[in-house]
Amino acid sequence: MTTDLLINIDHVATLRNARKETLPDPVDAAAAAEAAGADGIVFHLREDRRHITERDVRLLKQAVRTKLDFELSTDPDVVRICCEVQPDLATLVPERREEVTTEGGLDVIARQERLRDVVAQLRQAGVKEVALFIDPVCNEIDAAGKTGADCIELHTGDFANAKNAKERERCIEDLARAAEHAHAAGLVVHAGHGLGYRNYATFRAAVPHVREVSIGFAVMARAMLVGMKQAVREMRDLVKS
Ligand code: PXP
């Protein structure tokens, strides 16, 4: 199976907002990433609007020619915007205001009812696919299947942040088992968080059935030094090799 590379452009908006400027524009970044071969563009409209804004969302919807993935919490206001925008994919994530970035997967078991309602609302509004961002745990995958979601996005952050080889090995085993379990249950498997140029080959060799990866920070950090097109091309070469 070939894996699609979706590029998250939130950090372009973070840089713009740091100086309350209009540049760099995440819409330009999305176009450059697409021109370099990205299979899709991802953004997260956070409740506190710390990076991507509603203006960005509306323009990205018009500008993006590949796949558009809208990451969101179950906050009713953001769900409403997502329903209006009708992205190709909506990925539900947990959100805490004090976190620097998304820190873990959804607690699907505890929030099954609310998640089921939001998945139904998004589907009814015309969103083509809905994914739940979850930790690589089989019980959570089973619960995700019961919400009506089409896909799960496996949280790869623990693998990316593993302190040593033993911990990394355990994380990669968990991811591989979870991907098998989700695939067998008929769920499409996505993955993301902390994936980059150094750890991608290890991830790819061990984890089957991954249809899409969502990568932001590593590519944006590299783009600062070599430009967006080269940074995306290098990551695309890794993902497609
Ligand atoms: N997937 C999800 C659900 C995320 O919240 C993030 C971070 O915005 C990513 C993927 C991308 O993570 P990173 O920026 O570490 O590549």
Question: What do these coordinates show?
Answer:
- With 241 residues, the chain is α/β, with parallel strands linked by helices.
- The chain has one domain (4-240): Aldolase class I (TIM Barrel, Alpha-Beta Barrel), CATH 3.20.20.70.
- Helices cover 48% and strands 17% of the residues.
- The chain has 11 helices and 8 strands.
- The longest helix is centred in the C-terminal third of the chain and has 20 residues, at 165-184.
- The chain is globular.
- The model has no long low-confidence stretch (mean pLDDT 97).
- Bound molecules: pyridoxine-5'-phosphate (PXP).
- Pyridoxine-5'-phosphate binds at residues 8, 10, 44, 71, 91, 93, 101-102, 133, 153, 192-195, 214-218.
- Pyridoxine-5'-phosphate binds next to strand 8 and helix 10.
By CATH, the superfamily comes out as Aldolase class I
Indicate the structural class. alpha/beta
Write the CATH fold name.
TIM Barrel
Number of strand segments: 8
Describe the biggest sheet? 8 strands, parallel, barrel
The low-confidence parts are: none
What gap, in angstroms, lies between the N and C termini?
A: 11 Å
Average per-residue pLDDT, rounded, comes to 97
Proportion of residues in extended strands: 15-25%
The CATH class turns out to be Alpha Beta
Strand order of the largest sheet: 1-2-3-4-5-6-7-8
Report the total helices: 11
How many domains? The number is 1
In this entry the ligands are:
pyridoxine-5'-phosphate
Write the H/E string, N to C. Answer: EHHEHEHEHEHEHHEHEHH
Percent in helix = 40-55%
The global form is globular
Radius of gyration: 17 Å
